[in-house]
Amino acid sequence: MSEEKSLNFIEEIIEEDLKTGKYKSILTRFPPEPNGYLHIGHAKSICLNFGLGIKYGGKTNLRFDDTNPVTEETEYVESIKDDIRWLGFTWAQELYTSDYFGKLYQFAVDLVKKGLAYVDDSTAEEIAAMKGTPTEPGKENKYRNRSIEENLALFAEMKAGKYKDGEKVLRAKIDMKHTNMLMRDPIIYRIKHAHHHRTADEWCIYPMYDFAHGQSDSIEQITHSICTLEFVPHRELYDWLIEKLEIYPSHQYEFARLNMTYTVMSKRKLLQLVYEGHVNGWDDPRMPTLSAFRRKGYTPGSIRTFCEKIGVAKRENFIDLGLLEFCLREELNLTALRVMAVLDPVKLIITNYEEGKTEELYSENGPDENMGKRKLHFGKELWIEREDFMEVPVKKWFRLAPGTMVRLKSAYIIKCENFIKDADGNIKEVHCSYIPESKSGSDTSGIAVKGTIHWVSAAHAINAEVRLYDRLFTSENPLAEEGDFKDTINKNSLQVISNAYVEPSLQDADFEKRYQFIRKGYFYLDKDATPGKLVFNRTVTLKDAWAKEVKKN
Ligand code: ATP
Ligand code: MG
């Protein structure tokens, strides 16, 4: 791969538009419907829209596409704003489609006056039945030939609340035989007596997506309206409405949505997971939402890098979650504070170390010298990882076993002398002697050991809860499985360790700091932590399966 990045197809279009003077500057928008929390797929759209604004010295609006009063909530509006800010982007204007309800209504009236829209009394079933199929034309019904005056009066009555939900709709009068089914007199307004999160009870008719979206783009004078591929067939209607209404000609461009393995990426599906209790809320770290990634310890930079790497194309595909983890590790490897934490503790006693003595040792905070050093406490009793001792070692075992030597990270070389088991046969204590001359930084022992293990001082360590996460689904593509997508939920996606021991420096953990628990992965303070109880999430493991894959290829 060459370092120089070629332009994606949207950048090519924009550069051409700027060169030919079609536009002096560009205006894009990110148009979420506030009916759920943003997921990693939305990040792709955010990075693209805001990224173009930045790259070409233009602007990007945040527009809440709030035309469906039933599913939208203010909580979602706030979370969406938080997520965009967290990703590092600033919108030019915060706008709401609902602010245009008056203008949109007027546009609809204009269409009626041009003889291009009519009120239809048919039921949803009747409309569907007369729509035809991709291979059969649709049929015109008797309402289609209502006079302009009658349509104006009926539409005004719809607005005034004279009719019940579903009793009437307003349809664009295009062509019931059109090869594009979406052009067969699409519904543009429906009756819905529902409370709206912003306009309250002012309206009982609401515009349909296809009517509101392009018109909102036009009202804001969006130059490049970028959406996902499923809207390709809608573009014809988008252009038709703008042309007939003779309003500012925004243009729609479509790119492939982001799909990722081992998760689902639709707000409706995610809502089910939350409301049926399969996860503990929208920001449960196993969710693919941005708030979940943030809570788990992902950085906004890693998500932006990921979106850049996956690029913008016109073909749908699945991206491996491993690529996102790779981007994250690349960043955390350089920035995370190195600390020691023991997740599955077993006691280690240094037999020849003085009882009650404490030594202060120093250890690097990270790979960069400028990150400084921190103080460690060393004593006679330590906690080490249970898996770092083996009673009967396997071949090439470089950790502790009877008679073997290892280095305790940033401390001394020790030699395993003995061990004690409890009544159940589990290792209870490992007894070692230490080599006083082998202190890290001033080692004169001349002893070379192959293994280094992490540890914490039993007298100083703090108890912490550590949460380890695995993928939420066992299937690569849960939606492609037979049956319900929730059948493939991974029952072991959360492991809670309540008795981990961490070094005392972690008492200062906050949401600004990211840690590498040496040999164990990257970790981040969870919002459930309290002054008396540390709780950490494993952000990602150290293992870098993706990088190995990449190197192989
Ligand atoms: P969902 O099905 O998850 O609700 P949506 O497309 O209905 O997704 P919107 O709130 O309407 O959600 O989306 C806002 C913007 O984000 C749209 O422009 C949409 O095209 C884009 N978007 C949504 N999902 C993805 C995705 N997986 N990849 C890229 N862009 C996406
Ligand atoms: Mg949507």
Structure explained in plain terms:
With 553 residues, the chain is of the alpha/beta class. It has helices at 9-19, 40-55, 74-87, 101-113, 124-129, 148-160, 209-220, 235-245, 267-275, 290-296, 300-310, 321-335, 545-552, and strands spanning 27-30, 59-64, 94-96, 117-120, 169-172, 187-191, 205-207, 224-228, 251-255, 258-260, 317-319, 337-339, 341-342, 345-350, 359-364, 373-378, 381-385, 405-408, 413-421, 427-434, 452-453, 455-457, 462-469, 494-502, 515-517, 521-525, 534-540. It has 3 domains: 10-257, HUPs (Rossmann fold); 267-337 and 464-552, Beta Barrel (Ribosomal Protein L25, Chain P), CATH 2.40.240; 345-454, Ribosomal Protein L25, Chain P, CATH 2.40.240. It is 26% helix and 24% strand. The strands form 7 sheets. A 7-stranded mixed beta sheet has the order 12-25-26-27-23-24-13, covered by helices on one side. It has a 7-stranded mixed beta sheet with strand order 21-18-19-20-14-17-22, with no helix packed on it. A 4-stranded antiparallel beta sheet has the order 4-5-6-7.
Question: Which topology of the largest domain does CATH recognise?
Answer: Rossmann fold
* DSSP strand content: 15-25%
The major β-sheet equals: 7 strands, mixed
Q: Which descriptor suits the 3D outline? A: elongated
Just name the CATH architecture of the largest domain.
Answer: 3-Layer(aba) Sandwich
Q: Mean pLDDT across all residues, rounded?
A: 95
What's the name of the CATH homologous superfamily of the largest domain? HUPs
List unreliable stretches of 5+ residues: none
Number of helices: 13
